[in-house]
Write a structure and sequence with these properties.
The structure is a homohexamer.
Chain A lengths: L5 E2 L5 E6 L13 H20 L2 E12 L8 E12 L2 E11 L6 E14 L11 E2 L3 H27 L1
Parallel strand pairs in A: 1-7
Antiparallel strand pairs in A: 2-4, 3-6, 4-5, 5-6
Chain lengths: 162, 162, 162, 162, 162, 162
């Protein structure tokens, strides 16, 4: 806990991938489950980079498929930690696709995932603070807080009614 | 559109799985990305059963990992359509785990996923109405509406601030 | 051994699957080896449910591919224990396929597989009795015995001649 | 049909494999479904070599797991066509395992699988005759016929009773 | 051909990965074949980025495994194009590993791979020139030429003797 | 070390494979990374057969893709140990492809890979001598030496210049 804060930039992860025939669904685009795996891995490595500990996935808070990625699409998966909450962290992941011979990039998928830092016994442990620096990072830091509030408000409102 | 409504029960899907060594993460439990694949497949088949059409995954609205599932756990993945919104449907998925020789069941994962019905040209098409019958189905139907409202409210509040 | 008998119905397992491009053979239908994996898993979970122990596959007594399942087919794999023989059990597995937007179901595969119940040291252990209830379950119980007799008769007749 | 016969030896196929951690079941040995895939592939290539056509798997007539193959086992999978029946062929497959640094070989699995030769439209087509030469090949040729008779006798006896 | 040159930096690709239990060999480290797949993919995407065309792998000129990467290692795979030869390009790939909670990085693997740019008909096509800028990039550009010469010299010396 | 030499023939390994849709790249041929896995496995089993110990892959010294192998191609992968160097061995691997219904064989890939024999603690251990017998085996034995010399010469010349 006494550990020094780190910047958001220090948590940034990039993964390149190419959509191959073994990765596609019946519509000829990357299978959602496969894309989720990639997104979860990228977010988890970002969380791991920031916390300097092992992490486990707690929840996918939102993951939206924006455009299909057909065979041959080259994917660029970018993840970073948006905000730290005591023992948990929200990571944001963006997947961009492009085709060889084209200049156009397409947004394939955007996701927000919460990871928990754990020790060797898999018990949650506090995560060092994170410092957003750019205006985008500051905006994402604020949005992460609002996403969390909205989620908690929804959960308690649904539970009240049960 | 003029199509007859169907019951929630008619959309129910069950998948059994066993966690094998090839499915685990570095903590010895089922890899989150693999579980997401199973959950997405089960929800997609439920949506497909209800709509009678092909479907594509639009978004994972929430997916929470409740307990780890170590090697040898037998999983029971249950999915059904909670509610229909014109061309989209929310499916709910629950994953329960148990071990051979034990009577205890553990909740492994719960998820809400939105699918869109599509025609052969992959254009969205209207989905026939769904009829919740039991009190649980009616509660889920209501909650699906509230989840959607909360999501849309959050999105517009975040966009306003940008 | 003193354990109470259970019904066949209590062993029933259902698995849903969808045939994706990564699952097919050079003819464009589900690869036989992949289908066998699914069938073995479903039968093994049924055996596990009945015995309440770990199980190992002893033999595939017969597995017939009835119709090809092309990409997009939704599979329903149903397994149950047909009969118990001291430490082993015959499970029956049926795979049915259907296409989104069609009412027709096709029989894809039928299989009979024998599993052995094992303890922690992987030694065979007795399996509690099973009680067939419906006329179909009683017929399958009788057929399981006849399949076993025919198999043993064939083996001893072939061995005599060597 | 007027095609020249070929010898059994000309159909022989050998596949080497090593059991890796990604291939095992919860007991630490090769997963049955994975082994079945290898066996089906080896038998199919043998059938393909003999017929000179594409083939599809018709049935696994018998497949027995004789001994577990733990991680690190090197597998030798041998397949050949035992006998031809008009448009179908029985292939026999044996899987032997050994460990680096040991001289001992273990029988892991034995299987008899029936394949059908198909043309481009996937219609069954006649298979050229096969000539067993060694005494082992002649014995297997005879046994393939007896296995087929026993199977057909069982099927018709079970159907009579329904 | 008249196309403008691009810098080496514009071809740089980074892939992050984590070694999971499903990726390891019998020694508990990443399976060589799996690592080769990752390396080939990363190099291919770098080549694709530089050429702006599809590419096919022509040869792995050298790939050295420097240290094992046990389960839990986070891999950083970096690839860039070292030099262009008319229709082909040498890509260099480095794989670095580190463990959560450690500051140490280990060199896991280094590779040089040659890719060919191809058009839609899979015919080789000229690749635009590449411009090394840093002293490291210039050294790699020179070394790529020497590796190629040594390779061609070896091939012709071996062929002479046959 | 005092161990008796063995022949090259005793190390020979053969693997048959068929290229399935799940194995291909965006050009419709076997994915390079998948082929490398098969080649590494075959070479490793040959090395293991000769040394009678566990082995680890040290380097891929050269691997050339000669022709693409489209879906349906049956592959014959042949590996043997070319030469022993104290604790390491060079294995040579050839991959031949053919299509059902055709008599033509195509060279798909050729590779030279170096493996190191290791004991239980993964320390390198001396490998028993190998005896080439046929003129092809003797030629390969000589070429393995020249490949090694050329490689070492290149390495030291590149290092001098750094």
């Amino acid at each position: 806990m006494g550990e020094k804060a780190r910047t958001v930039s220090a948590s940034c992860v990039e993964m390149a991938e190419i959509v191959q025939p073994m990765d596609i669904n019946i519509h000829g685009s990357i299978f959602g489950g496969h894309l989720m795996s990639l997104v979860d891995k990228a977010g988890g490595i970002a969380a791991c980079r920031h916390s300097g500990t092992s992490v486990v996935t707690l929840s996918v808070d939102h993951l939206a498929f924006k455009n299909p990625a057909p065979v041959g699409t080259i994917l660029s998966i970018k993840a970073s930690v948006n905000r730290v909450f005591r023992t948990s962290m929200e990571a944001g992941v963006r997947v961009i696709g492009w085709k060889a011979g084209s200049d156009e990039e397409t947004l394939i998928c955007r996701a927000y995932i919460t990871y928990v830092a754990v020790d060797e016994a898999k018990k949650p442990i506090p995560v060092r603070p994170i410092v957003p620096e750019t205006s985008d990072q500051i905006r994402r830091w604020e949005e992460a807080g609002r996403r969390r509030e909205a989620r908690l408000a929804l959960v308690s409102s649904l539970e009240e009614r049960r």
